Amino acid sequence: MLTDVEIAQQAVPEPITAVAGRLGLAETDIELYGPVKAKVTMDAIHRFADRPDGRLILVTGITPTPAGEGKTTTTIGLGDALRRLGHSACIAIREPSLGPCFGLKGGATGGGYAQVIPMVDINLHFNGDFHAITSAHNLLSALLDNHIHRGDAFNIDPYEVMWRRVIDMNDRSLREIVTGLGGRANGLPRQTGFDITTASEVMALLCLATDLEDLKRRLARIVVALDRQGNPVTAEALKASGAMAVLLRDAIKPNLVQTLEGTPAFVHGGPFGNIAHGCSSVIATRLALKLADYVITEAGFGSDLGAEKFFNIKCRTAGLTPACAVVVATVRALKMHGGAAKDRLAEPDTAALERGLDNLWKHCENVELHGVPPVVAVNRFESDSEEELSLLIQRCRERGICVALADHWKRGGEGAEDLARAVLETISNRPSNFRFLYDLDRPIEEKVETIARQVYGADRVVFTLEAEKKLALITRLGFGGLPVCMAKTQNSLSDDPLLLGRPAGFRLTVRDARVSAGAGFVVIYTGTIMTMPGLPPRPAAENMQLVDGQVVGLS
Hints:
By secondary structure, the chain is an alpha/beta fold. 36% of the residues lie in helices and 20% in strands. The strands form 6 sheets. Strands 1, 2, 3, 4, 5, 6, 14, 15, 16, 17, 18 and 19 form a 12-stranded mixed beta sheet that branches. A hairpin with a 4-residue loop joins β22 and β23. The model has no long low-confidence stretch (mean pLDDT 95).
């Protein structure tokens, strides 16, 4: 059996000019990054702005497990399937981060015969967006420290510096560091640290910006510290936002590539789903909606994280209305939620599958909470028994949930045609009644409790003393009217990664909060979630080699 990278490397992609032409883009509308990659110009984006929108389809999933669910492959397979059925379709997904690529998770370009290509290029550096975001973020860090070193005209409180540095790599040794050591010439010593680039507020705000002017406004609003009177110090005050925008002038342009079957795909932006809002860029999604009848996009992790933030942050910011949501599930993962051991998932176990179904039902309910009709995509694995598949489909139908079996990893778009028909049928017969979960004028604590109780199923929410102080400060500074972005483990509906299935009667603990004024949300930290991942015992990097100029071992 061929590996993902071998399948991708054997593919013969179409010229990106031809893929762009499929969307109605002229050669002058794109900037080439070689023969099979391009960025769309801002002029082209403005030119298509008045076109009516196509239908937006969100792909989310159940609570992820090590068994794998295949959310990205489903997004890609569904796009290919809609095109095979004669529809104009486009995909909008996030860019991969180097950290997970070399760590545990691997790349984020799909797999099998449902991939975006060029797979290696997209997973490794791509068109330079992450480097630009990292550089813009760290430029602000350097200017902040230089300002303090040069006399500190803003009288910044060194204990209230909120702006850390970032790097696009999993490196636990950088989580907490001390800078400025070595004497007066090296600056003021202070404790700080690194986050991964996907957790950067610059990443988040670039992905939420509606155009270049909005990007500049958001950069200017970034709060980096408080002065000794407790007032915010911004990137604009430090005269940093202009240079940051210069670094991001190309990164804001959407990247255009294609699937193995030639379906146009925008791969742009990459905020983490369990730390940031976990969605690809607003600019790419809105452009795709102007150029295609159906746009399939993806949100990070399960409905409790990516989909909730997609609905309440991204859709609110961009004025988007999703037509339906695909909830990806696998027999293997549901059995794990039902108590099956990881090393026995290949064995038929309908009892464990039955027990794990509660997790699927909760994620479907979360979609319906927002007035969006769900469609369950059963992503098929070789080890799934016919009895298990039949049981899963039967239980969905008994609950009145539209469901389809999908085999796109093995068969590409052809394997997702039943899913595509189910999506089209749902859009035609069950119009979306999309709504937000909470009003922005409610107190931050109330917004958090609404998400915790209604989306996670928590019994109550506990705010630590530190969190209460931070939320009081954020409200005093005038940011209480922002949406909230929950930083929570992806491995459970609760804040305890060990609680699988559908936990009940648990309490959610909020331990910290931080305002991302540029992105336009308040980050709420729960459990032990960290903004800088570490490497696993066997990092994926150990399997990678360059052989005769070809990359091997990337997955």
